[in-house]
Amino acid sequence: MTFRTEADIAAYEKVPVGERLLLRNVLDLLQDSAARHSNRVAIRALAGTGPNDEARDVTYAEILKRTIQTANMLTAHGIGHGDTVTILLPSLAETFPALWGAEIGAIANPVNYFLNASQIAGIMKEAGSRALIAADASLFPEIWPKVEEIRKTIPGLAVFRVGGSGKSEVGIFEYESETAAQPGDTLISPKKLERDTLAALFHTGGTTGLPKLARHTHGALALAAWTNTLNFGLEPGAVMINPMPQFHVGGSIMGGLAPIAAGWTVVLPTPLGARNPNVVRDWWSLVERHQVAIAGAVPTTLAAVMNVTREGHDLSSLKVFLSGGSTVPVELIRRIESEIGVPVVEGYGMTEVHCYSTMNPMHGECRPGSVGLRLPYTEVRIADVAPDGTLKGDCVLGTIGHVLMRGPQVTPGYLDKRHDKGAMLADGWLDSGDLGRLDKDGYLWLTGRSKDLIIRGGHNIDPIVIEEALVRHPAVETAAAVGLPDTYAGELPMAFVQLRPDASATPEELREWCGKEIPERAAVPVQVVPIPVMPLTGVGKIFKPALRLDATQRAFEAALAPLKAEGAKAEVTVRSDPNYGLLAVVRASGAPGWSRQAIETKCAELLGGFQIRHAVEFG
After folding, report:
1. Are 140 and 59 in contact (CB under 8 A)?
2. Is the C or the N end of the chain the one with fewer CB within 10 Å?
C-alpha cells in the first residue's frame, strides 16, 4: 500500500491500527519475517568498500536465531527482564541481533560510542545498566579503551566483547562463544512482550548535555517499522544501503527493523558507515555492485556523494533517496532529481516517535522544502503552546506554531519524569520542540525550533555545554551558543560572548579554550564572536532569536563573498518570514558582465545549499 495524498492516509485509517497490525512486539516481527523470507539475505555487512573486500551475509533465519541466542545469553548471566543492557557497537553483522536480543530479553540502551568514556558512563548510570555489549579493539579501536574506563566507574558490570580473542576474563565474556552456547529456537526465560512493554532506552536531547532517555516500547517499534516503509511500495528483496549508526533511530529503526519487516536486504557499508571517507568515495560503485534500490542518508552525506563522479556506473537499480535528521536544502533535492532522475523523499521524525512521523509521498507529489505528509496512525497539528506547556489552541492553517504529534508511535515519556515537562503535553500530545506550518494539502513545512538544540549533520549538540565552557574563561561574563547555517552540515556551533568589564580575549583564544574544555570535538564552536552587549528579553534572559538572525546574516554574507569579488553588486538581508521562518533576501544591481540570470544562477550556486531559503531582488 502506498499513499499519494492525505486523503489516502485518512481512508486507510478507517480500519483501526490493532486490526491492521497484528504484530505486538519485536519478536513477533522477527519471527514473521523469518517465516516469510527464511533464506533471503537480511544483513550484508561490508568490511571495506572494494569489490574484493569481505562481505558477511546473514539470512533472515540466522538473524532470528542470533537474536534469540543473545536474549538467552543475557538470561544465562543473570540479566533480568527489567535490567538494562548498553550497546556500544558500530555497523557490524552482530549489531542488530545484539540490539534486538537485548530488547527481547531485557532492555536495550544503544549509546553513541563517539562520546567520551565519562559521558557514556553517565548515560549508563542514568539507565541503570547492568551489562554492556561492546566491540573489541580489533573491530573498532576507539571503543574498547572507553570500556576499560567505564568498568572502573560501574562495579559489577557484565561485559560481552564482540570480536575478541575467544578467552574470557573476569567480568568480560566473549559474545560469539557465549551466544553460540545458547539455544536459538526458543527463549529459556520468555519475557512478557505486550505492546506497552519497555524495549529500549534511547538517549536524546543533545548528546553533549545531560542524558535524556526516551522510552521505546515493543508495540511502538513494531508499528514504526511497519509504517516507515509503507510509503515506498518496494517488493521483498529490495536492497537498502544504511550508512547511519545504530545508536540513532534512523540507523536502527528506519535502517534496520523497518526494512527487515518489509523483507528487504540491508547493506552496512563498513563499521563506520558514512563517517568512512571511502564509503563516500565509492558510493556509486556500492549502489551498482549491490543493486541498491533505496539509499538512506542525512543531508550532509547526500551533498558529499553528489560531488563524487557517477560516470561509468549503472544506477538503474536506484529508485529513491530517503533523508532526514535535518532539513535537506531545496537546491540539493532539485539537483539529485534532475541529474539522477529519482525522487528524494524527505521525512521528519525524532527519537521520541520511534523514527519518522512524516514523509513526502514517493508515489505522490514530493514538495521540496517540506517534510511531507503524516504517516498512518500518527496525528500532526500546529498549535499555540504557552511557555508552561499549556495548549492554547490550534494555529490558523498556514501559520507557524509548535509541531505536535500524537499516536501509538509516540514515546510514553522519558525515564526521568522530570524531562516530560514541556514535552509531554495534555491529551497525549508530544511537543517536538520544532516550529512549522501545515499547508491545505497536509504537507508539513518546518521553519525553525522553539528549543535551542544545534543540529550538525543530524547530530544534536546541546548549547549549554558550549556556554558553560565559555563562562569558565576568566574574561567571559556571559555566553550564548547558536547554530551557524552551513551549506554542508546544516548548522555548525558558534557562540557570542560578552566580556567582563576591562577584560580582553581574542576569538581564537576563546576557541582554543573551548577545544580544551569541551569533551566532544563536534561541539567546539567554529566561531566565537565578542559583542558589546548581549541582547536580552524583558525579563533579562538572553534573546537567542536575535543571535540566530545575526549568525544567519554572517553566514550568508560570507557565502556571497565570491560573487562580490567577481564585481557583482549584491547585498543580503536576513529577515523573519511568515512562510519560511527566516528568508535571506539578496538585493542585486547591474554590474558590467553580469546579467540578471547570471546573478540568479550564481546565487543559487552559492546559497542553494543552505537550509534557509533565499530570494533575489533587483533594483
Report:
1. no
2. C
Q: What is the pLDDT of residue 54?
A: 95
Query: Distance between CA 24 and CA 294 in Å, rounded?
Result: 27
Per the listing, cell 534469540 goes with 68
Report pLDDT for 252: 97
Residues 427 and 32: their CA atoms lie apart, in Å, by 33
Q: What is the pLDDT of residue 468?
A: 84
Euclidean distance between CA atoms 377 and 54, whole angstroms: 41
Secondary structure (3-state) at 451:
coil
Q: What is the 3-state secondary structure (H, E, C) of 569-592?
A: EEEEEEEEECCCEEEEEEEEECEC
CA–CA gap between residue 142 and residue 166 (Å, rounded): 20
Round to whole Å and give the CA distance between 212 and 203.
5
Per-residue model confidence (pLDDT) at position 569: 87
Rounded Cα distance between 119 and 387, Å, is: 30
Measured in degrees and rounded to the nearest 5, phi and psi for residue 531 equal -125, 150
Which residue in 413, 502, 485 sits closest to 448, CA to CA? 485
All three cell numbers of 521, joined, read 570535538
| Spatial separation of the C-alpha atoms in residues 263 and 60, rounded to whole Å | 9
The H or E element spanning position 55 is strand 55-59
pLDDT at res. 89: 98
Q: Which helix (H) or strand (E) holds 266?
A: strand 265-269
- For 295-348, how does the pLDDT look when each residue is reduced to its tens digit (9 = 90+)? 988 887 888 899 899 999 999 999 999 998 777 888 889 889 999 999 999 999
- DSSP H helical ranges for 485-593: 507-517, 544-565
For the chain, the straight-line distance linking the first and the last C-alpha, in angstroms and rounded, comes to 51
> What are 207's three cell numbers?
548528546
In this prediction, residue 166 carries a pLDDT of 65
C-beta atoms surrounding 593 within 10 Å: 9
Contact 524, 493 (CB under 8 A): yes
**What CA–CA distance (Å, rounded) separates 59 from 186?**
18
Q: Which residues pair with 373 in a beta bridge?
A: 359
pLDDT tens per residue across span 388-400: 788 999 999 998 8
How many angstroms separate the CA atoms of 136 and 142, rounded?
9
| Residues ≥6 apart with Cβ < 8 Å to 52 | none
Cα 445 from Cα 436, distance rounded (Å): 5
Yes or no: say if 136 and 146 are a contact pair by the CB < 8 Å rule.
Answer: no
Residues 6+ apart with CB under 8 A from 616: 585, 586, 588, 599, 600, 603
- Among candidates 105, 26, 459, which has minimal Cα distance to 248? 459
**Can you list the residues of the chain whose pLDDT is less than 70?**
1, 166-168, 205-211, 537-541, 590
Which amino acid is present at 540?
Answer: G
- Burial of 383 by CB count in 10 Å (0-12 exposed, 13-18 middle, 19+ buried)? middle
